[in-house]
Write a structure and sequence with these properties.
The chain is mostly beta strands. The protein has 1 helix and 9 strands. The protein has 2 domains: 62 residues, no CATH class; 42 residues, no CATH class.
Length: 140
C-alpha cells in the first residue's frame, strides 16, 4: 500500500513539455513603458516560432496591467486575458449619466485611473470636480 501511494505522488510531479502559445498580441501603436494597456491598443496575431519577450506586469494597487517596457507599433507580446486590460484608461474621455425619473443629465469627464466594467473609478469634470463613479462598460 505504501509503495502504491508513493508512485501516485511521483506521477503527480512529472512535468509536461511547455506548449508554445498560438496567439499573441500585436501593438497597433507605440506605447510607453508604464502605460495601462487597453484592448484597443492590440490586435490578435499568430505568434510564429518566436516566443515574445515579457512586456506586462500586474499592478495590484492600480488593479490593472502595466507595460514594463515601451512597445513599438507591430511589436508582438504574449496574449493577455481580457480582464487584465483596462476597459477605461487614464485620460480617456467618458460621460457620466444620472437618471432622475424621465430626466437624464450627462456630463463629460476624464478618467483618472483604469477600470473594467463594474469597477469604481475616479473621474474629473471640466470644472475640476473629482468624483467616484461606477464604470458600466460602455466607454463610447
Amino acid at each position: 500500500m505504501r509503495l502504491a501511494s508513493s508512485l501516485i505522488a511521483v506521477a503527480a510531479f512529472v512535468a509536461l513539455p511547455a506548449q508554445a502559445a498560438d496567439t499573441c498580441l500585436r501593438a497597433t501603436r507605440a506605447l510607453a513603458a508604464g502605460t495601462v494597456p487597453a484592448a484597443s491598443d492590440f490586435a490578435a496575431a499568430a505568434c510564429g516560432d518566436t516566443k515574445p519577450l515579457p512586456a506586462v506586469r500586474y499592478d495590484k494597487g492600480l488593479r490593472a496591467a502595466r507595460l514594463m517596457r515601451a512597445l513599438q507599433p507591430d511589436e508582438m507580446i504574449a496574449d493577455l486575458p481580457a480582464a487584465m486590460m483596462a476597459g477605461v484608461v487614464p485620460g480617456q474621455k467618458l460621460f457620466v449619466q444620472v437618471h432622475v425619473g424621465p430626466v437624464v443629465v450627462q456630463r463629460e469627464v476624464e478618467a483618472l485611473q483604469p477600470a473594467n466594467p463594474g469597477q469604481k473609478l475616479f473621474v474629473r469634470a471640466a470644472d475640476g470636480t473629482v468624483m467616484s463613479v461606477r464604470y458600466g462598460g460602455d466607454a463610447g
